[in-house]
Amino acid sequence: MEQVVRRVSPQSSFSSLTPPDGGWRAWCVCFSGHLVYMNTWGWVNSFGIFQAYYVDKLNRSVSEISWIGSISVFLLFFVGTLTGRLVDAGYFRYVFVTGILLQVVGVMVTSVGSEYWHFFVAQGVLVGLGHSCVFCPVLAVLSTYFARRRALAMGIAACGSATGGMVFPSLVRQLLPKLGFAWTLRIAGLTQLLTLSLALVFAKPRIKPRGSNPLVDWSAFKDVEYALYVTASFFTCWGVYLAYYFIPAYSQIALDPPLTYTESLDLLMILNGVGIVGRLASSWVADHTGAINVFAPHALAASLLLYFWMLVTDKAGLYAWAVIYGIIAAAIQSLFPTGVSLLTQDLSKIGVRMGMAFTVASFAALTGPPIAGAIIDVEGGYYGAQAFAGSVLAMGGGLLMIAKGKHMRRTGAGWMGKI
Fold first, then answer.
1. CA-wise closest residue to 57 among 187, 180, 189, 188
2. 177-204 pLDDT, tens per residue?
């Protein structure tokens, strides 16, 4: 996720704005971003390990449990647009340390939780606030170190999501039967403390503190291409996380024969692990053809895959589906923010426009999984939820194609034009 909170000051010197585009310091910051992705999106995409466990332990509906994960993603997006302003003012390390403390405390408190509201506040709110304080700030720093290789650097950082998506389910798989829930969570929290502390050591801001743009640029919505893109991003974020939340539970209920809990965690690790391919490949292609040209077909492909998911009834088929969908969905998550820069003519407004796009997407991430969970609760099966996610992704892909068409008419570019 690229220029999420990047704000360019016209008064800054050219030398300070020219990224080194490589070198030891730049790649160290990239490694820091990888660790942050591991502990934010890697944790988010591993929520499926908790979904089925909490439904059984707390005796709550699927939709109610989904709110724990979705509020965390909402806060990551929504509050992240505000933490970026503090980074602009020179408070990067203060914000980052606050994020580490919030996230680790949230996980530790989760380990001793016993009631639904305990988990909602600790794992949902505290961890979500912690995510927002480390994710957007480190991306703001990383974006200042790369220009020509920015998509590659962001792709490498984003692969941390796959790293975390394999580490945390594997940790739960190995430790939960031996140590129990509480100590498994405590070890996960210590893992996050160590890796995020290492990320803090390697992340060094390059640009001097500067003023921030306004939080909202209302004139942006008069730009039809931008408005279409943001609306499309809402629909894609509304549906893309369905599998990450529900595929473990689905594999234990809908398959014949069903998978065990341990096997369902293996499936989730595969879904996350193959994301490395999707993130790196899509970043490389986007560098050459344009982010929206890659984003749109991936959204449409994900829509078709969610409909095809309805036809999967055996173990082999679900493993194969998870591999394909994991690659496509990871590409979508990586590409979503990058298109805004291509639709923004005034570079000084990239940061605020990205913040606005993230704010809109935050409400999709907040409501998508609970809506799908409510459909599952009412239906008693997964067809309705799969159809919901597939349909909203199709709408997102269609709106991206319309945005591309508007851009073509405005610029005179052909269908193969870079955007």
1. 180
2. 899 999 999 999 999 999 999 999 999 8
49 membership: H or E segment, kind and range: helix 48-58
Spatial separation of the C-alpha atoms in residues 67 and 8, rounded to whole Å: 36
Rounded distance between C-alpha atoms, residue 148 and residue 202, angstroms: 22
**Two tokens at 157?**
């950082």
Whole-number Å distance between alpha carbons of 204 and 354: 22
Backbone phi and psi for residue 148, each to the nearest 5 degrees, phi listed first? -65, -35
Query: 375 and 395 in contact (C-beta within 8 Å)?
Result: no
Same domain as 198, residue 279? no
Q: CB–CB of 134/35 below 8 Å?
A: no
Whether 71 shows a pLDDT value over 80: the answer reads: yes
> pLDDT digits over 216-275, tens only?
778 888 888 889 999 999 999 999 999 999 999 999 998 989 999 899 999 999 999 999
| Domain annotation covers residue 5 | no
Same domain, 155 and 288: no
- The candidate with the shortest Cα–Cα distance to 261, out of 270, 252, 271, is 252
pLDDT in tens, 41-70: 999 999 998 998 898 889 899 999 999 999
**What count of other Cβ atoms lies within 10 Å of the Cβ of residue 249?**
22
Does 218 lie in the same domain as 188? no
- Count the domains in the chain: 2
Residue 6 lies in a domain: no
Same-domain pairing of 164 and 284: no
Whether 306 maps to a domain, the answer reads yes
Q: Is 85 part of any domain?
A: yes
Q: Which residue has the tokens 């749109």?
A: 296
Which structure tokens are listed for 114?
A: 């016993």
Single residue among 176, 211, 246 that ends a domain in this structure: 211
pLDDT band per the 50, 70, 90 thresholds, residue 104 = very high
Q: Per-residue pLDDT for 4 more than 50?
A: no
Domain carrying residue 225: 213-419
Same domain? 86 vs 120: yes
